[in-house]
C-alpha cells in the first residue's frame, strides 16, 4: 500500500466525551493537495470517515497510526502528520482504555508544536492537546487549550466539542450550552446531533434528547458511528427505566460493532435489571476485555455483590484498583471512580478526601457533586452533604441515582416530605437504577409511609399548623415571662428586721 501523504493544510482535532467517547480527527477539503491520492484502504478510511467528527474503526485507526509513523520517519518536519498521529493515539487511548497511548499522543503533539509553534498558527496540535487533556480528566487544561484555539480561530468548529467537554467537566453548564449553540451555528451532522442529545439530557429534556439521538443515528456515516448513536439511545432508554428497550438498542449497536465496550457494559446493566444475570456477567466480561475501564469493574462488582457472590465482587474491585492505578501512571485522573468505590465498598472518609480534592481542582460536574454529597452522607455529615445534593438535582438532569441520594440525605435530616418526594422520584424515573441501592430506595420509601390524605395541600396545611402551634407556644411562653416580671415589679418588698439594741459597753441585749 502506498504511504499516505498529508497536506500541511490538514485540519486535525480530538473530540473527547467523558468516559466513553474518543478523540476524533477532523480534516479539511485540501487533504491530499501535496501528494498522490491514496489508495482505498484502512488508513484512508480512518482519515476520511471522521471528517464530521465520527469515530474510526479500531483496525483502521491502527492502520492510520502505522502509516503516519512510517511517513514521519522520512518526513520528521511534517507538523500536520505529527498532529494526526497524536490525535489518533488519543482516540485509541480513550475509546479502548489504552492509557499507555496518552504519553505517545503527548509526545507526538509536542513534536508538532516544536516544528510549528502555536504562535505561528499550529491550531491542529493545540486542539489535539485540548482533547488529550480532557481524555485524561484534566479539564482546566482542556479548557485553556480550547479557548486559545477559539480565540485564534473562532470559526473552527472542531474547537467547540472540546470546549463542551471541558466546561462540563468543570461544572460550567452555561458555558457548555453557549459552546453548543456556537457549534450548531458552524456545523451539522451526526456528531453535532449526538452532542445536542447529551446537552438535552443534562437539562432534563428527555424527549428532545431521544429525538436528537435518533436523528444522529439516521445521519451516521459509518457502522462505528451508527453504533455509537445507538448506544446513546440505549443509555437514554436505561435512564428512563426501560431496560428491555435499552437491551434492544445496545444489541443493535453491537451488531454493527461487536466489541463496542460502552454498549456491552450498558447491555450488561440492563440485563441485570431484567434478572438475566448470567447474560449480564457475560457482557461485563466482554466489556472489560474490549475496554477495561475501572467503572465497568465497579458496576460488575456491585451486581455480583447484589447476587451474594462476594468473592467475585472482590475480584472485580481488585480489577478496578489495578486498572485505575495503571491509568493513573499514564496521567489519567480516575479519582471519581475510586472515590465512589471507597464510599460504598471501602473507606468513606477516603472517598470524601478524594472528592474534596477534585472539587478544589475545579472539577465540579454533576457527577462529582453527587459523589461528594453521598460520601459526606456516608461519613455522617448529612448537613454538609445536602447543598451538594441540591446543586446536582437543581441542574435538571432526570437521574434516579441523584434523586435517591438527595432523598436519603433529607431523610437523615428529618426532612421527611422532601425525602419522600425525592426517593419516590428516583423509583419513578428508573426503578432498576442500581442493583444495590434500588432495593434500599424501596425500603426507605415504605418506611417513610404515605403522605397525608389530600396530597401536597394537606401536607402544606399540616406544616402550617405545626408552625402556628410552635408560634403560639412561643407566644404563651413569652407572655408568661412578661407576667412574672410584672408581678415581681409590683410586689412590696418586706421591711428589714431592726438590728438588736446594744448595751453600753458594746454587748447586745438578750
Keywords:
Serine Threonine Protein Phosphatase 5, Tetratricopeptide repeat; single chain; 510 residues; mainly alpha; disordered C terminus
Instruction: Assign an overall shape.
Output: globular
SS element count, helices: 24
CATH topology call of one domain:
Serine Threonine Protein Phosphatase 5, Tetratricopeptide repeat
The biggest sheet amounts to:
none
The percent range for strand residues is: under 5%
Any overview of this molecule?
The chain has 510 residues and is an all-alpha fold. It has a domain at 1-169: Tetratricopeptide repeat domain (Serine Threonine Protein Phosphatase 5, Tetratricopeptide repeat). It has 24 helices and no strands. It has helices at residues 42-49, 58-74, 79-95, 101-115, 123-135, 139-152, 159-169, 173-186, 190-203, 206-219, 223-239, 243-256, 261-273, 277-290, 294-306, 310-329, 335-345, 348-360, 366-378, 382-394, 400-412, 416-429, 437-448, 456-490. Helix 14 runs antiparallel to helix 15. The model is unreliable at 1-37 and 498-510 (pLDDT under 50). Residues 447-510 are annotated as: Disordered.
List the helices and strands and how they pair.
Layout: H1 42-49, H2 58-74, H3 79-95, H4 101-115, H5 123-135, H6 139-152, H7 159-169, H8 173-186, H9 190-203, H10 206-219, H11 223-239, H12 243-256, H13 261-273, H14 277-290, H15 294-306, H16 310-329, H17 335-345, H18 348-360, H19 366-378, H20 382-394, H21 400-412, H22 416-429, H23 437-448, H24 456-490
Helix pairs in contact: 1-2, 2-3, 3-4, 3-5, 4-5, 5-6, 5-7, 6-7, 7-8, 8-9, 9-10, 9-11, 10-11, 11-12, 11-13, 12-13, 13-14, 13-15, 14-15, 15-16, 16-17, 17-18, 17-19, 18-19, 19-20, 19-21, 20-21, 21-22, 21-23, 22-23
Amino acid at each position: 500500500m502506498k504511504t499516505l501523504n498529508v497536506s500541511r493544510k490538514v485540519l486535525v482535532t480530538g473530540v473527547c466525551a467523558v468516559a466513553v467517547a474518543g478523540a476524533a480527527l477532523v480534516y479539511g477539503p485540501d487533504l491530499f493537495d501535496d501528494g498522490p491520492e491514496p489508495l482505498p484502504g484502512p488508513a484512508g478510511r480512518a482519515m476520511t470517515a471522521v471528517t464530521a467528527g465520527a469515530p474510526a474503526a479500531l483496525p483502521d485507526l491502527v492502520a492510520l497510526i502505522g502509516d503516519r509513523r512510517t511517513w514521519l520517519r522520512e518526513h520528521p518536519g511534517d507538523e500536520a502528520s505529527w498532529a494526526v498521529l497524536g490525535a489518533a493515539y488519543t482516540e485509541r487511548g480513550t475509546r479502548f482504555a489504552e492509557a499507555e497511548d496518552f504519553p505517545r499522543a503527548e509526545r507526538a503533539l509536542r513534536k508538532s508544536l516544536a516544528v510549528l509553534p502555536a504562535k505561528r498558527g499550529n491550531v491542529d496540535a493545540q486542539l489535539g492537546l485540548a482533547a488529550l487533556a480532557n481524555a485524561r480528566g484534566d479539564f482546566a487544561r482542556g479548557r485553556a487549550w480550547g479557548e486559545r484555539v477559539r480565540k485564534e480561530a473562532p470559526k473552527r468548529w472542531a474547537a467547540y466539542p472540546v470546549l463542551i467537554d471541558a466546561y462540563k467537566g468543570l461544572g460550567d453548564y452555561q458555558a457548555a450550552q453557549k459552546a453548543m449553540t456556537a457549534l450548531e451555528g458552524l456545523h451539522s451532522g451526526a456528531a453535532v446531533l449526538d452532542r445536542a442529545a447529551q446537552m438535552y439530557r443534562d437539562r432534563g429534556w428527555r424527549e428532545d434528547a431521544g429525538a436528537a439521538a435518533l436523528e444522529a443515528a439516521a445521519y451516521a456515516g459509518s457502522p462505528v458511528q451508527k453504533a455509537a448513536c445507538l448506544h446513546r439511545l440505549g443509555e437514554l432508554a436505561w435512564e428512563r427505566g426501560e431496560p428491555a428497550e435499552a437491551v434492544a438498542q445496545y444489541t443493535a449497536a453491537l451488531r454493527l460493532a461487536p466489541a463496542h465496550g460502552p454498549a456491552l457494559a450498558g447491555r450488561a446493566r440492563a440485563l441485570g435489571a431484567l434478572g438475566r444475570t448470567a447474560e449480564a456477567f457475560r457482557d461485563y466480561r466482554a466489556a472489560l476485555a474490549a475496554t477495561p475501564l475501572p467503572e465497568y469493574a465497579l458496576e460488575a462488582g456491585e451486581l455480583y455483590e447484589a447476587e451474594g457472590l462476594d468473592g467475585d465482587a472482590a475480584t472485580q474491585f481488585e480489577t478496578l484498583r489495578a486498572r485505575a492505578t495503571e491509568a493513573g501512571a499514564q496521567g489519567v485522573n480516575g479519582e471519581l471512580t475510586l472515590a465512589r468505590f471507597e464510599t460504598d465498598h471501602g473507606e468513606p472518609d477516603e472517598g470524601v478526601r478524594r472528592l474534596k480534592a477534585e472539587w478544589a481542582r475545579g472539577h465540579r460536574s454533576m457527577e462529582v457533586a453527587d459523589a461528594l454529597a453521598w460520601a459526606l452522607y456516608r461519613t455522617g455529615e448529612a448537613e454538609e452533604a445536602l447543598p451538594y445534593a441540591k446543586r446536582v438535582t437543581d441542574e435538571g438532569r432526570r437521574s434516579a441515582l441523584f434523586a435517591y441520594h438527595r432523598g436519603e440525605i433529607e431523610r437523615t435530616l428529618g426532612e421527611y416530605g422532601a425525602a419522600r418526594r425525592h426517593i419516590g422520584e428516583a423509583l419513578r424515573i428508573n426503578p432498576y437504577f442500581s442493583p444495590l441501592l434500588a432495593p434500599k430506595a424501596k425500603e426507605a420509601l415504605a418506611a417513610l409511609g404515605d403522605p397525608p390524605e389530600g396530597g401536597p395541600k394537606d401536607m402544606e396545611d399540616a406544616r402550617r399548623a405545626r408552625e402556628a402551634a410552635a408560634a403560639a407556644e412561643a407566644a404563651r411562653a413569652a407572655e408568661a415571662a412578661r407576667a412574672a416580671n410584672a408581678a415581681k415589679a409590683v410586689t412590696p418588698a418586706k421591711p428589714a428586721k431592726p438590728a438588736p439594741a446594744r448595751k453600753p459597753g458594746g454587748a447586745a441585749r438578750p
